[in-house]
Amino acid sequence: MSNLSRILCLALLLGLLTQVVHADTATSFGSQNSSNHQPDWEDCVAFREKVINSKKSKEILDELFSKIDEDDFCAKNILGILHAKGLHVEKDFERSYAIFHNLSEKNYPPSQLNLALLLAKKEGHSSETLINLLIGIIVKYTDTEYESCGFFEWDMCAVGEEWAHIAGSARRFAQKYVDGLPLRTASRATLTTRLREANTVSGTQL
Questions:
Q1: Which of 70, 103, 127, 184 pairs as cysteine with 108 (C-beta 3.0–4.6 A)?
Q2: Which secondary-structure segment (H or E) carries 18?
């Protein structure tokens, strides 16, 4: 097990992901409210695109860090994306992970999803841990409507009902991830079953 997986498992034990959805199957993030630190989601997406597309690194980073100084979760999440991609700042996997992890503890859904996406890029990561993270997101944030939102694809995110678009992205990524596992393996069969159960719990079917 990699160091990153050990840290994540420790976080699970300490209660970062606290609400059991299905025995030994999935966990959902805590209920701490982060709404006081969230700008309007459409404004957040617009600012993210502005930062990503800016040709003036110093000026845009000054604006970004100004928002971070105000404890803006959206801005902090964007900084995590920049470090993951090496855009405007040094590419730093561990720094990006730390940012997403910290915001996940504060129950910020975009960072919870980004934490899972970043873990999937880590060589030697635990498939079970990753799917449990994604299932927790799916069950917690699923609503009647959602739109896809891929933070590492740099596409504009459509706004669903509350954070339902986050659940939609987690669902699609989880299915793609499971489909990519070797055929006829116990792990693939088990994770497929868990994902199906999560979608049943959240009232949706893939």
A1: 103
A2: strand 17-22
- The gap between the terminal CA atoms of the chain, to the nearest Å, is 30
Distance (Å, whole) CA 206 – CA 204: 7
User: What is the token pair recorded at 123?
Assistant: 């060589």
Tokens standing for residue 44: 């957040």
What is the CB neighbour count within 10 angstroms for residue 28? 18
Cβ distance 29 to 8 under 8 Å?
no
Q: Are 116 and 137 in contact (CB under 8 A)?
A: yes
User: If 0-12 CB within 10 Å is exposed, 13-18 middle and 19+ buried, where does residue 77 land?
Assistant: buried
For 28-66, write each residue's pLDDT tens digit. Answer: 444 444 545 567 888 999 999 999 999 999 999 999 999
Phi, psi of 181 (to 5 degrees): -75, 155
> Within 13 A of 33's CA, how many CA atoms are on the CB side?
2
Please state, in angstroms and rounded to a whole number, the distance separating the CA atoms of residues 20 and 29. 9
Continuous segment of H or E residues that includes residue 181: none
Q: Which residues pair with 20 in a beta bridge?
A: 27
CA distance 146 to 11: 29
**Look-up: residue for tokens 């991609």?**
85
How does pLDDT run across 106-161, given as a tens digit for each residue?
Answer: 999 999 999 999 999 988 888 888 988 998 898 888 753 434 444 444 333 434 45
- pTM here is 0.71
